[in-house]
Amino acid sequence: MDCVPALDEPLKKVLGPATAKVMAEHLGLHTVGDLLHHYPRRYEERGQLTHLADLPMDEHVTVVAQVADARLHTFASSRAPRGKGQRLEVTITDGSGRLQLVFFGAGVHKPHKELLPGTRAMFAGKVSVFNRRLQLAHPAYELLRGGAEETVETWAGALIPIYPATAKLESWKIGKALQTVLPSAQEAADPLPESLREGRGLVPLPEALLKIHRPHTKADIEEARARLKWDEAFVLQVALARRRYADTQLPAVPRRPRPDGILAAFDDRLPFTLTEGQRKVSEEIFADLATDHPMHRLLQGEVGSGKTMVALRAMLAVVDAGGQAAMLAPTEVLAQQHHRSVTEMMGDLAQGGMLGGAENATKVVLLTGSMGAAARRQALLDLATGEAGIVIGTHALIEDKVQFHDLGLVVVDEQHRFGVEQRDALRGKGKQPPHLLVMTATPIPRTVAMTVFGDLETSVLDQLPAGRSPIASHVVPAADKPHFLARAWERVREEVEKGHQAYVVCPRIGDEEEGAKAKKKSPEDEAEKRPPLAVLDTAEQLARGPLAGLRVEALHGRMHPDDKDAVMRRFAAGEVDVLVATTVIEVGVNVPNATVMVIMDADRFGVSQLHQLRGRVGRGSAPGLCLLVSEMPEASAARQRLNAVASTLDGFELSRIDLEQRREGDVLGQAQSGTRSSLRMLAVIDDEEVIAEAREEATGIVAADPELERLPALRTALDALLDEEREQYLEKG
Known about the structure:
Elements: H1 11-15, H2 17-27, H3 32-36, E1 42-45, E2 60-75, E3 85-93, E4 98-104, H4 109-114, E5 120-130, E6 133-137, E7 140-143, H5 149-155, E8 159-162, H6 171-181, H7 194-199, H8 205-213, H9 218-249, H10 262-269, H11 276-289, E9 296-301, H12 307-320, E10 324-328, H13 332-346, E11 363-367, H14 373-385, E12 388-393, E13 407-413, H15 420-427, E14 435-440, H16 446-452, E15 457-461, E16 471-477, H17 482-497, E17 501-505, H18 514-517, H19 523-528, H20 535-544, E18 552-555, H21 561-572, E19 578-581, E20 594-599, H22 607-614, E21 624-630, H23 637-647, H24 651-661, H25 664-667, H26 688-704, H27 712-722, H28 727-731
Parallel strand pairs: 4-6, 9-14, 9-15, 10-12, 10-13, 11-12, 13-14, 16-21, 17-19, 17-20, 18-19, 20-21
Antiparallel strand pairs: 1-8, 2-3, 2-5, 3-4, 5-6, 5-7
Helix pairs in contact: 8-9, 9-26, 9-27, 10-12, 11-12, 16-26
């Protein structure tokens, strides 16, 4: 989509090395095509000025305003002790508000001559506060008077595009660069098949690029946006459709359970009946496993909806059919826990080859990086000989040394922590590609599933198993109402007196290096001037103060795996009343006796993460309670987020709220890697229809012409999308 021949001219040839360097380093733009796809964030109308009243703090802004007055002050300073220091203060207005600009020292002369009252200009800079007033210090500016020919030309036209800019390159400089390359837009090869474009009434790509950068009317902008959204959705969906198509062309060994095998024996012993949802999803999985091409299925389920049970039955079905199943977990704690819960659920069916093992039992082995050499050797041997039907481990499973006898199924837990490369490495361990089941407890709205996991079929478990208790959630405003926090600790004591246990979750560990604290703070952090609460400090304070006399222990990710495991075992065995932990407990820790969770500085966590954490309580027959402690003021966005979490237990509803509040880039797993999101125009939540329709069109086109031989421009766009870091799109973070 980015580099179409004739548009792959490097920017340094067109714009000169200095500008090109800034564009490459700060905006990730390297070619003429990249720049043409750097769309305006919004548009200013001549004569209708930005609202200075709602400028965001600490952000780089571009405003169009008129100079109200300008005053030059002299002052004494260490550099100019005789009162020779100069400061120019310029007040600008747009009718909605006023903003002060300040220039110092030698930098005052040019603006003093140019910024006379009545002058209109575009100003760009970072908004800061001085003496309780908003100001821009040393802003860059561009006069909007009909002075120089070029300025009039550049800003002719009613709508001024405002581009995503950086401190090193203001919006209008990007605008000027675009004027230089805009004629190349005529060369843009159109990736949409003509029939599709005409059928949907979309303008051709060259026209869309011209209209997005030089619109004459608002209708131009709408037309261009509608077209460019389709490009993004369609090219991405074609990439995913081709991946799905390629997967259906791979051979796989069909795996069908035996009527009298280990799965039947396991089902006979279950002390409860499966939910309707578990049965339905299991049937979908068994149908996929019986085909001769690999299953690729995403299993979404709320925390505690019984995904592990569904995955275990799928693994047993494969063992029945003579194959092996591997389950990958993102952390050692989680791998150990899965291993514990699987062996407990299976009982003597997990004791293959041992005294007391059931007749069709198999071995269930654990494989993690921190295992001792002897245990590891034995586990590797059991896998190579086929003695172990099921292996559970971390990415240690992917290493070269690990050989399987006959790998039939890979189950990946918490997919967003595994990339496609890792899935592929594990796939390569089978004689033929194994079947794949991906589990996630983070509910994903339908469109995101279609975009991010578009190469997988989706199953949803939305029913909680019988006997799971409801969880009540409340926000505890610690700053406004300190007595609420005191009451929260009383509630923890009351639960412990009833024989239950509690979690207290904190955002950080507390033994970080000084350097880590010096990281750039967000405006909210700045406002609070307080680092987030830490596990080690909180555990100590609680044990000495409000929870004195209770058995309080700490758990965090930097502990030695054995120590972590020991603490978790003590907690699971009821020997610890209150576990103060980081989010290491977010995934998969299962202690039915824990009924209350207090999340400190809850505003520091994302919506989905809070929902995940909350799912750790109420796992037994007693009702769960989750208290979200925050010092953020009532009106803040952070508090609204917490109120949303407290008001619903529906994970899908929350994931929508979460998405609306975050940038799309995070959804596509790219915020972590720092690359630009390849979605410039498309909003995953708002453009649900476009994505769904694009998926349908893409599937049809790929089925008819898998190699896209009849659509060379689409192939080129696809290569550009999958080029460079774009692979990450399909690698799910």
